[in-house]
Structures are given as C-alpha cells and as structure tokens.
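User: Can you recover a sequence for this backbone? Please restate the input before giving your answer.

Assistant: Of course. Working from this structure:
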C-alpha cells in the first residue's frame, strides 16, 4: 500500500515538473526560438525515468511528449520575420525623412541669394516680406551654408489641422544645430523666418549683452531658479527665473516683481523643475554704472508655434 502511494506521488510530481518545463519553455520561446526546444527536453526525461512496465498509470505520460516538440519548428521559422518587421524606430525615422517636399522647401530657403527670393518660401508672406526688407536693410543678406540638416520632430496643429516639422540645421557657426520650423500650407511647405533669424543671429544673446533696443520678444525656455548673482537696487523685491534660448551657453537671469500675477503664473508652470517654452516680452532695466538686469514684461504666447 505504501509502495503504491509512493508511486502515485512520484507520478504526480513528474507531471507537475513536466508542465512547469513546458510553460517555461514557451515563455522563453516567445523571445528566442532556440530555448523552446531546449526547455522542453528536461520535461520529458523526469517523466520517462520512473516509468516501468508494471505500472500502467505511468505509461500514457511518454506518449504525449513527442507531440509538442514537433509543432515547435513552425513558431521558430515565423518568429524572425515578425521581429524584423516590428521595428518602430526605423519606420518613424523613415516616415519623417521620406517626405521630400518640406526638405526641398527648406533647402530652397537656405540657398536663396537674397530676401526677395527667400520670401517665396516663408510663412505668412504678406506680413513677413516687409519685415525681411527692413531687417536686411541693416543686416547682411545672402544664402545660409549648412553642413547637415535633419528632421527633428513632427507636430500637429489642433486648431487648423496643419502639419508642422522642426528641422535641425548644422552650420559652421552653429555646430550643435540650429532649430527651424516648417508649416504645411495650401501653397506648400513654408519656413518660419522670424524664429529662424532670431536663433541664427542670436538675438537673445545680443539683447542680454546690452545690444540693440531696450525691449524685444524672444523664444526661450523658462526655468524656476534661485538668484546667486550680485544684489542690485530693488533685487529684494524681485524673483528670478532662468531663460535659455535653444542655443548652448546663452542662459541669463530675468526678473519679475515678487507676488505679481506674472510671478504666480510663471511659478506655477515651472513648478518642480518643469521647463516652460513661451514667447516673452523682455525689457532691460538699468540700475547705474552701466549695469542692468532683464525683466519679464509679459507672456506674448504660451508656446513657439508660428502665428501671424
């Protein structure tokens, strides 16, 4: 009686071991075809060792074992094609790079010899052309040479259902890349000229250095920070934020009156270190001895999306 009970327990233990081996082998087989075969072999061997002719209960165990081994080759053959086709990153990159129209428009814009020919490829030409003429009355004109350019990101416009692409242009003076935006319009892909010249000609860096007018609009990243600079008259009533244009080593402090609505808004959107990417109206505030600080006057737009 005890011998029969022992044999029964041994048979059940072998069955559980066999099932565990098959499940493990199947899970590994989803990742790699080879473990599917290698993992099923240990499941068979424990089952066949205790089997004897005198024990009819154990006889059916070896029979089903060969079955699962033979069907395994089809999954082995089909697994590689599935893995090769399911490659999301290359498909995404190809989707961006496979659109020739925006890249052609950008190259034509960069190669234009003067502002008049460049105006054919700009966004909102009715308003932008006059700005281009005024700008290049005092700024050298000509094509923009580049060493490389690539599609950096793709965006959708929820209001007008227009597509927007951002490219990164590498030039000799911008080895880390210069961002430029293109928008799809009924007339084709057009370049956002205003942000292009703002970043290419480093408008924010020059303004922060004291060049140009006393006020201006700039596309920057705003971050919450502490002011560790030298105190100046009235600084105890101001709160500092850090401003970064999309260019390296251009960060500067800018201030707002502590407790003002503007201060509360900026503090809220930059809480816990989150960056905020608005268009800001900035002014230079002098405080004697040719010194000044930057002050945030208003938020002109909550993001960098091109607008008329």
């Amino acid at each position: 009686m005890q011998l029969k009970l022992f044999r029964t327990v041994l048979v059940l233990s072998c069955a559980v071991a066999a099932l565990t081996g098959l499940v493990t082998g199947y899970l590994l087989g989803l990742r790699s075809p080879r473990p599917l075969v290698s993992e099923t072999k240990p499941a068979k061997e424990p089952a066949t060792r205790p089997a004897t002719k005198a024990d009819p209960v154990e006889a059916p165990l070896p029979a089903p074992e060969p079955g699962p081994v033979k069907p395994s080759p089809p999954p082995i053959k089909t697994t590689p094609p599935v893995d090769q086709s399911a490659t999301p990153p290359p498909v995404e990159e190809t989707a961006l790079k496979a659109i020739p129209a925006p890249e052609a428009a950008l190259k034509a814009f960069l190669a234009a010899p003067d502002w008049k020919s460049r105006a054919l490829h700009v966004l909102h030409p009715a308003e932008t052309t006059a700005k281009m003429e005024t700008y290049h009355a005092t700024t050298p004109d000509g094509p923009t040479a580049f060493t490389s350019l690539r599609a950096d990101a793709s965006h959708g416009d929820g209001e007008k259902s227009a597509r927007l692409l951002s490219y990164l242009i590498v030039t000799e003076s911008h080895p880390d890349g210069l961002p430029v935006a293109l928008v799809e319009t009924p007339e084709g892909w057009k370049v956002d000229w205003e942000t292009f010249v703002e970043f290419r000609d480093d408008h924010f860096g020059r303004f922060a250095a004291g060049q140009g007018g006393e006020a201006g609009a700039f596309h920057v990243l705003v971050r919450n920070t502490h002011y560790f600079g030298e105190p100046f008259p009235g600084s105890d009533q101001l709160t500092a934020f850090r401003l970064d244009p999309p260019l390296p080593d251009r960060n500067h402090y800018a201030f707002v009156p502590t407790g003002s609505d503007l201060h509360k808004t900026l503090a809220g959107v930059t809480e816990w270190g989150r960056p905020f990417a608005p268009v800001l109206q900035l002014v230079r505030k002098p405080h004697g001895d040719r010194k000044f600080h930057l002050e945030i006057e208003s938020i002109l737009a909550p993001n960098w999306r091109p607008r008329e």
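That completes the design. The first strand starts at residue 148 and ends at 156.
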